[in-house]
Amino acid sequence: MNKYPKISIITPSFNQGKFIRDTIESVLNQNYPNLEYFIIDGGSSDNTLDVLRQYQGYLTWVSEKDNGQADAINKGIRMSTGEIITFINSDDYYLPNTLFKVADLFLTHPEIVWITGNYQIIDENKKTIEPFVVKYKNYFRKRSNPHRLRLTNYIIQPSTFWRKKANDEIGLFDATLRYTFDYDYWLRLMDNYPHLCIDDPLSAFRIHGQSKGGAEYKQQFKEEIDVLKRYQPSNFEYLFHVIHNWLIVKSYNIFK
Fold it and tell me: What number of helices (H) and strands (E) belong to the chain?
C-alpha cells in the first residue's frame, strides 16, 4: 500500500504549445509515486497536441471543444480518483518537491481540507518579476481568514490543493465565470473548511502577453467584484476590494 495519498492534477489547455512542456515536465519530474495527471485540451490548433503525444503513457489527455477553462477543469475533476485535487494552467509550473511537501502536510494534518502556499511570478522567459506582489499577497496569506479573503484575493491558484471531498460536498467550479471561478471556489472553501497556509513557494505563475492576467486584468477585476457580491461582504470589505482593484489597474496603466 502506497503511504502517499493519490494526487490528481488537472491542466486545462488551449493553444499554449509554447509553454505546456514546462508544465508537464514540472509535474512528471516531481517523481511523486501516487499521481494521476490529466490534460484537458479545448481543441488546440497550435503545436500543443504534438507535445502531448510525446508524453503518451505518462499522462491522460483529451482534446475536444469545451465551454472554457472552468468547464475543462471540472471535466478533469470528474475523471479523477485521487484523494487530493489541484489544477495547474498550461503556462505555469511546479517548483521541485512540491507534491511531496503537500502530501506530507495533508498526512500530518488530517483535519485540514485545503492547503495553499507561496509562489514566484515569472515572465515569458522565466525571469522572476513583481516581487512586491508576492510579498503583498504573502502578508495577507499569513493572516488568512474569511474576512481578509473578501478584502482581496491572496490565494495562489497553482499553489493550492484540496481534498476531493470538498468537490463532493460543495461542488465544482462555476463554469459561467471566465476569470474568477477560482476566487469563487476559494471563498466557498474558506467558508466551509479549515485550511493551512505555508510560506514555501510551490509554483511559478507566468505572466505574458496572451495570459488572462496579463492581457485582460480589467475584465478580471470587474468579474471579481461580481463574485464578491455573492458572499455578502460588509460595506468595508466591498469598498476596500473595489478601491484595491482600482489602484492595481491605475498602477498597471502607469508601469505598462
Answer: 11, 8
Domains recognised in the chain with CATH numbers? 7-255 (3.90.550.10)
Q: What would the pLDDT profile of 68-113 be if each residue is shown by its tens digit?
A: 999 999 999 999 999 999 999 999 999 999 999 999 999 999 999 9
Element housing 23 (H / E): helix 20-28
**Which residue, chain included where needed, has cell 504573502?**
138
115 within 8 A of 161, measured Cβ to Cβ: yes
What are the pLDDT digits (tens) for 223-235? Answer: 999 999 999 999 9
Tell me the three cell numbers of residue 140.
495577507
State how far the Cα of 130 lies from the Cα of 174, in Å rounded to an integer. 29
What mean pLDDT do residues 198-205 have?
Answer: 97
Q: Are 156 and 114 in contact (CB under 8 A)?
A: no
